Amino acid sequence: MKLVFKKILFLLLLTLILISPSLVFAQFSSRVMTSKLDAVAQQSGYSASTDETTLVTTLGSIVNILLSLLGIIFVALTIYAGFNWMTAQGNEEKVKESKATLRTAVIGLVITLSSFAIWKFIESRL
User: Fold this and answer.
1) C-beta of residue 77 within 8 angstroms of C-beta of residue 84
2) Contact, 81 vs 105, CB < 8 A?
3) Which of 67, 71, 81, 93 could disulfide-pair with 102, CB 3.0 to 4.6 Å?
4) pTM of this structure
5) Cα–Cα distance for residue pair 11/75, rounded to 1 Å
6) CB 63: neighbour CB atoms within 10 A?
């Protein structure tokens, strides 16, 4: 009975943790701040919003999507390698294979994060 109670309590706490960011209502202050900045831009003679899509924004969207997908793939590989390592049950071959997968996943994640940083630098200059 205690084990069931602990599991239910754990699930409730996990749910509360996952839902808590939506309770902050940070989006409201962001919208208020954006509307104030738009008003200042209009008073200064600048256009508050642009409807045109430039090459930089299109490339930025494509690169961000691709890098996000790569990040998801590398996280999935890390979880897969960890699962294989935990279920190896002393089998040295499976442990070596899991270590190699984990190593390549971490290297790939570092490359992806580096390319993301480089792209953000290039995008800010364009």
Assistant:
1) no
2) yes
3) 81
4) 0.53
5) 23
6) 16
- Dist. CA 111–CA 13, nearest whole Å: 35
- pLDDT, one tens digit per residue, over 108-119 is 888 988 988 898
Q: Which residue is it, tokens 């580096």?
A: 114
Which amino acid, one-letter code, is at 95? V
Nearest to 78 by CA among 118, 112, 114: 112
Give the CA-trace dihedral at 65, 68, 72, 77, to 10 degrees: 110
Contact 108, 70 (CB under 8 A): yes
CB-CB contact of 97 with 84 (8 Å): yes
Ramachandran angles phi, psi of 99, nearest 5°: -65, -40
